[in-house]
Amino acid sequence: MVGVTAIFEMVLEVILLMGKLLYFWLEAMVLAALPASVRGKNISGETVLITGAGSGIGRLLAKRFADRSCRLVLWDVNKEGNEETAAQVQRFGITVKTYTVDLSDAKQIYQTAEKVKREMGDIDILVNNAGIVTGRKFMQCPDEMVQKTMQVNVQAHFWTVKAFLPSMLDRNHGHIVNIASSAGLLGVSGLADYCASKFAAVGFEESLRYELETSGKTGVHTTAVCPYLIDTGMFDGCKSRFSFLLPKLKPDDVVDSIMDAILCNSAIVIIPKILYAFIALKGILPIKVVFLLCDFMGVNSMMKTFKGRGKAVQ
User: Fold this and answer.
1) 195 vs 94: CA distance, rounded Å
2) Per-residue confidence of the chain (314 residues) as pLDDT tens digits?
3) So which residues are the catalytic ones?
4) Residue 57 near residue 259, CB atoms below 8 Å
5) Radius of gyration of the chain, Cα coordinates, nearest whole angstrom
6) CB neighbour class for 274 (10 Å; exposed up to 12, middle 13-18, buried from 19)
7) With contact defined as beta carbons under 8 Å apart, do 71 and 94 qualify?
8) pTM of the model
9) Measured in Å, how far apart are the chain's first and last C-alpha atoms?
């Protein structure tokens, strides 16, 4: 009887699982069909911290959040660029505070975080946007630059989350956004250290999300953002063989996708959408086939013409 009961319970559990799988599959399809303007959350009045806010995607995100009446906390190692971003968002009539932070320094991150808590209160949305790229083949990359790439691109995520997640958990309210890269889903020749840091950022977000879900903190969300090359200057000189299929992304388009993902509590967003198919193929095709396809598309040679901004900057 004990064996029969155990089998019955297992069958019942499988039936319930299949029912839930079907429900969430259908739910995802319905939600995907609805625009963010319909299903998106209201973030007006929330306090948003953006790292790497002094230029590029960070500056554009600051403007979008300001347009939604958010209070802004801007972090960047470049004081002048950060102040310029603040000046541009102040016309929205919102509260904005700037902090000069070296994100490769964990101690400085924690110290600045404490200052933010005293001056601005709890953070509702944390956007880990800052990133650097060396653009060199692995054996030509100095050890200190490998270390700094990991410190800025992923370790800084650890320290900012440790600093601001506790208050989110206490309130069961918050959102952590980690700007990663499509290079965090598919390796690229000439980007070994960068890919390693972005793979880590994607894995960190996924693991953290599962921790939050299993702890029942349904009001705290995470999002991993994985864009292809963005036309911000960071990857100047790089291009794939068939740029009409995979052109560099326009910054405004990327920010539109990021904002939609945040408003809809999307767990991950890959930009452009055609990359979803590439990533799926990576999971089912033989490794040599994937390599040949990447070689044919020019992915393995795109870094040969890399120019960047002239130096690795946050």
Assistant:
1) 36
2) 557 778 878 888 888 888 888 888 887 777 777 777 667 799 999 999 999 999 999 999 999 999 999 999 999 999 999 999 999 999 999 999 999 999 999 999 999 999 999 999 999 999 999 999 998 899 999 999 999 999 999 999 999 999 999 999 999 999 999 999 999 999 998 999 999 999 999 999 999 999 999 999 999 999 999 999 998 888 888 877 777 778 899 999 999 999 999 999 999 999 999 899 989 999 999 999 999 988 888 888 888 888 776 554 44
3) 194
4) no
5) 21
6) exposed
7) yes
8) 0.90
9) 65
CA 64/CA 70 separation, integer angstroms:
9
Q: In what order do the strands lie in the sheet with 47-51?
A: 96-100, 71-76, 47-51, 125-128, 174-179, 220-227, 268-271
Q: Hey, what are 9's tokens? A: 């319970």
CA distance 278 to 96: 40
Enter the tokens of residue 11: 């069958």
The secondary element (H helix, E strand) that includes residue 96 is strand 96-100
Angle between helices 106-120 and 156-171 (to 10 degrees): 30
What's the token pair of residue 267? 């767990």
